[in-house]
């Protein structure tokens, strides 16, 4: 397999030999085996360069090798969504609306929370472990059979999953494929489709700046890169400079760009109230964006219209106008209310213990998270009629500076903080949450760095509204943290998490005399997924 393994760990070549034996045997590949094989692609040194269009050329070649054509992609009538925050939530709303209108939906998102198969959904549900294994084996075998003479023997991890999603959607004959962009847009491998039905851009902010640039204009250019000739695109309200860049892209592609209205502008049926299935004030704009995207998709489907060139004569004409709100039907309202998207403003309650989980990891998204948590926690405290202790469970990975995120949490009444790497447990093998690009030691060091920054920030920020002990604990795994949090509060959760803990938390004093504990889990989607793995271990059992 050549260069695929040279960038990986020493055992990769041995694993490859083992995997080939599994794939060529009569025995069907099992889910854990498929995920372990997939994980090796995390260390693939052949990943196409991000900063130019070579990745899209490579992506097209890879699609050809598994038998997927541009006509196949066109037939999927793709909804493509980019943005900095709210991409997944917006896609989830779109999926719920179109499914409620009777269409068979495919939905590709990233990253996953608990199991990698969450990334590929049919009619709102992750494909089964059996289906994932079978489709993975099909796609992997096609690459194995065609690798000779190819510039990319096997695609890297995210490329493979994107290709597999397209493959599943084609095989399942979905009516619509809803594709969430991974990073950026212009050179993201989801952007390989030359014709889509409709595009959306969620709120922009500063994330992945090493790849997208350090200005909002550069980021807007990447996000608007998903616009295709003659398509219609919608955007959440953005900074004027970002809109100018997006308008230029719309002009270059002869595409229409419109700004979504506030959710209050839509007319409701008499006597009905609008309720969203996703918590947080920020979800209202995501819902409006989803309504506009879904409404246009439905119109195009009914009229059998693919695209419509605008015929602009000047760039001024391409500057976005405001999209018109429209009357909502019972189908719209039910779809918005029933929409579910785990790990985003999610609440999981136990006896004397409540987890508030949100994968916020940028300054702007953390501000939204703080607003939601403060409001929801205050309401719970009022309903319980007893004092609640608020604890932060935090991790952020890579070289990100956690200090700006901590600053957004200062009005939340957080008294205590705990830190843990994104490791759910070491007691059992969990291929779904393995990251071969980062060692356990590196993950632990990252947790220590976050811990130290938190203490420094709390001691120097005079506006910090919390009374932090000096010894904010660091736990080796999420299971250890959950066991400590639940001890003396919920017997069943304590018992289940203790079995998955690496050792007893002997050196961390228990929280005595606290009627109820509220835990905000944030900073990383992977951290949230790890907590859900421990506190809701059967949520994906099927």
Topology, element by element:
Elements: H1 3-6, H2 12-24, H3 31-40, H4 54-65, H5 70-75, E1 79-82, H6 87-100, E2 105-108, E3 120-122, E4 125-126, H7 129-146, H8 157-172, E5 176-180, E6 198-201, H9 209-212, H10 216-223, E7 232-235, H11 240-252, E8 256-259, H12 283-303, E9 321-322, H13 330-338, E10 346-350, E11 353-357, H14 363-384, E12 388-394, H15 403-408, E13 416-419, H16 440-460, H17 478-486, H18 491-500, E14 516-522, H19 525-535
Parallel strand pairs: 1-5, 1-6, 2-5, 6-7, 7-8, 8-9, 11-14, 12-13, 12-14
Antiparallel strand pairs: 2-3, 3-4, 10-11
List keywords for this structure.
14 strands, five-stranded mixed beta sheet, alpha/beta, UDP-N-acetylmuramoyl-L-alanine:D-glutamate ligase, single chain, 542 residues, Protein-Tyrosine Phosphatase, Chain A, nine-stranded mixed beta sheet
